[in-house]
Amino acid sequence: MTITLNGKSQILDESAELLAILHDRQVDPAHVVVEINQSIIPRDAFATTLVNDGDAIEILRFVGGG
Amino acid sequence: MTITLNGKSQILDESAELLAILHDRQVDPAHVVVEINQSIIPRDAFATTLVNDGDAIEILRFVGGG
Amino acid sequence: MTITLNGKSQILDESAELLAILHDRQVDPAHVVVEINQSIIPRDAFATTLVNDGDAIEILRFVGGG
Amino acid sequence: MTITLNGKSQILDESAELLAILHDRQVDPAHVVVEINQSIIPRDAFATTLVNDGDAIEILRFVGGG
Amino acid sequence: MNDELVIGGQVVRSRLITGSGKYQDESIIPQVLEAAGCDIITVALRRMDFDRPTENILRHVPKNKILLPNTSGARTAAEAVRLARLARATGCGDWIKIEVINDQKFLLPDNYETIKATEVLAAEGFVVLPYMCPDLGTARRLVDAGAAAIMPLGAPIGTNRGIRTRDLIEILIEEIALPIIVDAGIGRPSHATEAMEMGAAAVLLNTAIATADDPIAMARAFRLAVEAGRLAYLGGMPGASTFARASSPLTGFLDQTEA
Amino acid sequence: MNDELVIGGQVVRSRLITGSGKYQDESIIPQVLEAAGCDIITVALRRMDFDRPTENILRHVPKNKILLPNTSGARTAAEAVRLARLARATGCGDWIKIEVINDQKFLLPDNYETIKATEVLAAEGFVVLPYMCPDLGTARRLVDAGAAAIMPLGAPIGTNRGIRTRDLIEILIEEIALPIIVDAGIGRPSHATEAMEMGAAAVLLNTAIATADDPIAMARAFRLAVEAGRLAYLGGMPGASTFARASSPLTGFLDQTEA
Amino acid sequence: MNDELVIGGQVVRSRLITGSGKYQDESIIPQVLEAAGCDIITVALRRMDFDRPTENILRHVPKNKILLPNTSGARTAAEAVRLARLARATGCGDWIKIEVINDQKFLLPDNYETIKATEVLAAEGFVVLPYMCPDLGTARRLVDAGAAAIMPLGAPIGTNRGIRTRDLIEILIEEIALPIIVDAGIGRPSHATEAMEMGAAAVLLNTAIATADDPIAMARAFRLAVEAGRLAYLGGMPGASTFARASSPLTGFLDQTEA
Amino acid sequence: MNDELVIGGQVVRSRLITGSGKYQDESIIPQVLEAAGCDIITVALRRMDFDRPTENILRHVPKNKILLPNTSGARTAAEAVRLARLARATGCGDWIKIEVINDQKFLLPDNYETIKATEVLAAEGFVVLPYMCPDLGTARRLVDAGAAAIMPLGAPIGTNRGIRTRDLIEILIEEIALPIIVDAGIGRPSHATEAMEMGAAAVLLNTAIATADDPIAMARAFRLAVEAGRLAYLGGMPGASTFARASSPLTGFLDQTEA
After folding, report:
1. N or C: lower Cβ tally within 10 Å for chain D?
2. Which tens digit of pLDDT belongs to each residue from D6-51?
3. Do residues E185 and E164 touch, judged by C-beta distance below 8 A?
4. Closest CB from G247, G249, G257 relative to C7
């Protein structure tokens, strides 16, 4: 299946939990905020949210800014 | 009958043409623009426009401005 | 005899020591500097300096300034 | 003989009139002012002024300036 | 040099626009306009004063001028639109200066109502010149709304403080394709020259001339000042530097020894 | 209006004085002078270049102008005096701009040597116009020394920075009875207008015209700018305020209820 | 003296707000914050960079600071709202700096979209600090929309040009009941002092500290500058005058003759 | 950081020098000096007032301060020398601020007499700090005359106008090896910060503190302002630009499509 992760097309073998996707990428869930298809996913739902084919995922974190 | 002319209440004996009202007040019709009840009266209709009881008339002209 | 003290003419009965003149006027010698006839009188000479007829004395002290 | 003309050493065969020196260099006498050994030479004396060995001559003219 | 200013499709020769308010003696206005050399003059619309029914500012305005009525007194877009329509009904043309003001201390224009009024009036065929507080976003919306020119303030009306919003106006000049006319705040000819050097298309002023000791002389001063600034803008002014650069040659000095 | 400027007993019509330096093409100088409308033009004295013996700046200067040679290159009063005497020996008049400079980075005048040179040359009958760093004490001494006018700098020569010494020059204008001519620093017509509005008697500039893309247009711009500023100074400019004052009447609004 | 700044119901001790962007080495941020003494720090929200998954600006921000995420990147109110909600979902508080920018050359805020975003977010309980182009009408609408403070720009972001919109900001300070925080343009401590002397409630800056040669020293400089300006504002600065007033007594001089 | 100011061979820690004149209540001077943190304080010399023989400004000045008597009242070098010698005869040290003033409206120093007095007093072993009208030629002569620092005016005494002679003072800072202390004109902390950012070694002020509503708070404000400006000067302030430079990253935006 194909998802769009931070604007880039990515192929996943199968449906995965959001939390697993973060872990695969060494991302600490406590430091990010996630939108799937423009809906914000609460942090405590990361473990139970399934990412599906065609989903557009935005994983954001704070950076230096003015 | 009572009209409101430029914000002031005025008593008229009877219904009058707009043009007559201007003439009574030494106002040159060519120099003014007139609204009755917030509708603009074209200058060539001054002679044929009847002012009625309760009408709110605004007679305006250009003055110095910046 | 007549002296000029800070621009004002003053009459003294007789020749006097500078220190006495200061004391008469409640002036603490430690706070002032004195010129007689445009010569500065060192503070330790106040007691031994005689003021004579016609002398012009300037007694100055520091004040607030910018 | 050697003269200094506008700061440059120049060798002349023999003593010459100032006017001749100007002419040799295509200089219009009406456009310049001349100093020999720091004395100004009036223009009407150009023809009669002899330049001698060791003279320092300054020939100046107006240029654009602010 | 063909340096034409075109507003609302009409060629305007003079880049100085003057107001007709505040004159102690309105009868000098023709001479002032002559001295100012201006093509456009602003007027306001007010109720007839029945105690002076023959007073008429237009008597003092030569026929060949473009009349630019303002909507002063309007606090909302709706009121500005109403005043603009009345102004047009006088038969004196369809130019209108939008002036929507809610603030009585600084007389600052309300950019939001100004945009709305511009939209309506431009659609009705007016040549709309909105007076505004300089702001790029507002200027872009005024362009979209159909304005014929944009008139940012240099400082509040009648203060004579000069171009205190300079950086914001420079941005408008750089970014907006319409003529930028600096309106309000210009109190001295040097302010007008400065505006024109910045690249403003024109300046509009009233107080500085009308309340001068000698309004006719001052009108002439502003005319020259505007022309000076325009010429300088077109003529390529050299930039400024920190260190000095001699105006006279740095060679050929007396007493120098040369090789 | 009889608004005459008199310097050294001579009536000068134009309050714009221009320099003749830095022109890429000196042949345009007559047109520049015509456009500038000026009566006085500065020149420098330098050694004849024998490779170009026929070059002559005076060819480009109309006969009716007042020539104002400067003493550029002088580092002391003595050198300035020597240059002044040479300049007079050309037969082109007895006006002299004293310029004694020891500082090569900012080309700032040395006020002390300038006073000394002024003293000597005024006694010899020169019409002396000293270029100086604005300072009241110096100006007073220059008056005593016999100067015909005082020429304080607005900013270092050739920097085009404008009147950066404004407060000091305003004091000179207020306190000194001689004409105050702002010399150096004026880079834009608005600077010239500002100087004249302040009450300067005239301005002297070179770089801003000579190095403009279009020197003739710029000369005209400065002429207008100077005239504008002078008119404004004479015409009584109104002062500036913090709060707004309406240009259109504050009564007679539509829809107001009246008693 | 009890001189508290309250924003969104929260007492803020420091009137210096700093950004966390543009640091060459983010590890010095704790020292910078310490030197600046600030309570509020801005951050931006961006996509995770999967090549550097452990990078985390918050590591450098002490826990007791108020985090002020901005909506940089938003070109519309809708985008700003979306970013604000995401920022809040991080669990780092509900403060938000609205920054809606359509202009890439000057990065000027879009006042219209800013008002809309403020309205939505204030209604959702955010503490909204909108960055805006100074304009009284906009400020009034932001007040109505529920803003917690108003943040006008002194000059475009990152230009260090100082408070070039001074007159317009002074009007906001005078007319608007909310804290006015000057944001953007402040490039030197003297600019910050000036803002505070004008009566600004606080200043927000980033570039001037982050890109200084020594950011920690500069942070301390700004802290002192802000405090100096605030003290001066409260301490009643005397006004300026044209003529001199002696600091030393004008009597009691040597050699004067007295009656 | 070892940032020492040395004047006349003596290390001075504070770069804020204050005057003791114009206080309504001199008894607050110790608190003012404490708040200002200054090491040097100016006083004037005047005739004893025999009606108040016990009044003594020195009562209010802590022992460890450097006393800087001025020569106010002097109109010539000779008078300044006489006053300086009298001041030294008090036994309060050999520092002297030369102040020779001939102009009663603007209280501008006479640079010529100031140089002469400096020469005499430096030769007599005084630590001479001359107050002067900013001028490079004068400053060079003061250096040669043996001055310990140069004190140009920012604006006339007591006017609070700020650093109106900025360009001339910047040249002094760049060209003169002695400490440049801006004296007079500084009316607000932001002026002091600006002077220090320019690279001034110190500032001297009196009116702005002494006539403030709250002199103690204002003294503290100036102390912070001076320190802020000095830190900024040393800390490498970034320059100003015309176009904006974002403070938040320009990549990683939401919704961008990436390759």
Report:
1. N
2. 999 999 888 889 999 999 999 999 999 999 999 999 999 999 999 9
3. yes
4. G257
Q: How many Å apart are CA E130 and CA E148, to the nearest integer?
A: 8
Q: How many CA atoms lie within 13 A of A6 on its CB side?
A: 19
**pLDDT, mean of residues H183-199:** 96
The first and second tokens of residue F196, run together, are: 């004249």
Question: Does residue H116 carry a catalytic annotation?
Answer: no
Planar angle of CA F60, F63, F69, nearest 5 degrees: 70
Q: What's the pLDDT band for E251 if we cut at 50, 70, 90?
A: confident
Beta bridge partners of H66: H40
Q: Do E214 and F236 touch (CB under 8 A)?
A: yes
**In this structure, what token pair is assigned to residue H161?**
């106008």
Q: What is the pLDDT of residue A35?
A: 96
Could you tell me which residue, F186 or H250, shows the higher pLDDT? F186
Encode pLDDT of E87-139 as tens digits: 999 999 999 999 999 988 999 999 999 999 999 999 999 999 999 999 999 99
Mean pLDDT is highest, among F146-150, G207-211, H234-238, for F146-150
The proportion of chain F whose per-residue pLDDT surpasses 90, expressed as a percent, equals 85
Name the DSSP letter for residue E74.
B
Q: Which DSSP state fits B47?
A: G
Q: Which residues contact H248 (CB under 8 A, 6 or more apart)?
A: A63, A64, A65, A66, G19, G21, G44, G46, G70, G72, G73, G99
Residues of G in contact with C7 (CB under 8 A): 255-258
* Chain C residues with beta carbon closer than 8 angstroms to that of G244: none
- What backbone torsions phi and psi does residue H125 show, to the nearest 5 degrees? 90, 10
pLDDT for position G241? 86
Q: List the catalytic residue out of E22, E97, E105, E116.
A: E97
| Long-range interactions of A11-17: CB distance < 8 A, separation 24+ | A12/A51, A15/A50, A15/A51, A15/A52, A15/A53, A16/A50, A16/A51, A17/A46, A17/A47, A17/A48, A17/A49, A17/A50, A17/A51
E259 CB within 8 Å of a chain D CB? yes
Here the tokens at position E62 are 């030569």
Q: Using CA of residue H212, residue H217, residue H223, residue H226, what is the dihedral sign?
A: negative
Rounded CA gap, E154 and E183, in Å?
A: 7
Instruction: Supply φ then ψ for residue F210, to 5 degrees.
Output: -65, -30
A54-to-A13, A18, A19, A27, G21 alpha-carbon distances in Å: 13, 14, 18, 22, 34
Question: What 3-state class would DSSP assign to E45?
Answer: strand
- Read off the pLDDT of residues E138-164 as tens digits, 9 standing for 90 and up: 999 999 999 999 999 999 988 999 999
Residue F29 tokens, joined: 């100088």
Residue type at E169 in one-letter notation: I
F231/E228 Cβ within 8 A: no
Burial of residue F10 (number of CB atoms within 10 Å: 0-12, 13-18, 19+): middle
Closest by CA position to C14, among listed C64, C60, C55, C52: C52
Catalytic positions of G are: 97
pTM of the model: 0.93
- Kindly state whether F45 is in contact with chain D, defined as any CB-CB distance less than 8 angstroms: yes
DSSP structure string for F136-179: HHHHHHHHHHT-S-BEE-SSSTT-----TTHHHHHHHHHH-SSP
Is the separation of the CB atoms in G147 and G122 below 8 Å? yes
Tokens standing for H173?
């800072």
Q: How far is G26 from chain C (nearest CA, A)?
A: 47
Give chain B positions within 8 Å (CB) of F257: 7
Which residues, in sequence order, are CB contacts of H28 under 8 Å at separation 6+? H215, H216
- As a whole number of angstroms, the distance between CA H141 and CA H145 comes to 6
Beta-carbon contacts of residue F228 (< 8 Å; ≥ 6 apart): E189, E190, E193, E221, E222, E223, E224, E225, E228, F193, F196
